[in-house]
Amino acid sequence: MKYIVEKQPSVSLPINDSDEFFPVGRVYCVGRNYAAHSREMGDDPDRDPPFFFCKDASCVVPVSYEAANSIRYPMSTSQFEYEAELVVAIGKGGAYLSLEQAKASVLGYAVGLDMTRRDLQGQAKKKGRPWEVGKSFGQSAPIGPIELYSTDLANNIASSDISLLVNGEVKQSSNIANLTWSIEEVIVKLSEVFELRPGDLIMTGTPENVGPVVVGDKMLVSIPALGELAVSVTD
Fold first, then answer.
1. pTM above 0.85?
2. pLDDT digits (tens, 9 = 90+) for 117-127
3. In the chain, what is the greatest distance between 2 CA atoms, to the nearest angstrom?
4. What is the distance between the alpha carbons of residues 196 and 95, in angstroms, rounded to a whole number?
């Protein structure tokens, strides 16, 4: 097959302790899925259902647990912010899934970061425009290797802590149990508006206390059931 322009490479995430890879299709993000973060962003977590936005697959940066990784400070922003997230990898697709089907659709989990150009996102929101400029840009989704699903792992993750440190200082600290909408509920709701496919990723939301990083800062994201993700910001 011949292409009229150079074909862009696809993105895949390694499977932990395996020589297999997960080919990334679409990347769905859940907005404000921790009550405290929802409140700090001006929403009512008891009233608002989950809402979704997307990052392009090219935003994904495969990174290693417990190793040095880096991303570049992006163009056109002066407010580059972190959001620590649990990422779910979908292995079985479908639409209008039940809770049991949603649970069965999970291939595995990973630690991730939803990096955000907050000033550009804020400008878009004020004008009622889409968020892509603030969310979907190069290297905005560093994600670690995928740990394959097991019942024990799922149970551990459901009550696992999630935290983010910047230069050794705790910035975000919560527990996956504080998700407003559980992993399975998120998948159910998402499947009501998109037919899910194997290869999809879901970034399940971030706890409160999101904030900025600058060149030279080192972020450390931890979900003990999965591992630690160290990512530095370079120019």
1. yes
2. 999 999 999 99
3. 53
4. 6
Long-range contacts of 64-67 (CB under 8 A, 24+ apart): 64/144, 64/145, 65/16, 65/111, 65/144, 65/145, 65/226, 65/227, 65/228, 65/229, 66/227, 66/228, 66/230, 67/230
The pLDDT averaged over each successive group of 10 residues in the chain (235 residues) is: 92 97 98 69 64 96 93 98 98 97 98 98 94 96 98 97 98 96 95 98 96 98 97 98
Burial 208-220 (b: 16+ CB within 10 A, else e): bbbebbeeebbbb
The H-or-E segment that residue 228 falls in is strand 227-234
Name the strand (E) or helix (H) holding 21: strand 21-23
Residue with tokens 């892509």: 132
* Beta-ladder partners of 139: none
- b/e map of 72-97 (b: 16 or more CB within 10 Å)? ebbeebeebbbbbbbbbbbbebbeeb
Instruction: Identify the structural domains of the chain with CATH numbers, from first to last.
Output: 12-234 (3.90.850.10)
Please report, for residues 54, 83, 85, 130, 162, the alpha-carbon distance to residue 220 in angstroms, rounded to integers and kept in the order given.
24, 11, 12, 29, 11
Read off the tokens for 120. Answer: 């550009």
What DSSP assignment string belongs to 111-159? EEE--EEHHHHHHHHHTT--SHHHHSSTT-EEE-PBEEP-HHHHHHHHT
Residue 44 tokens, joined: 């009512």
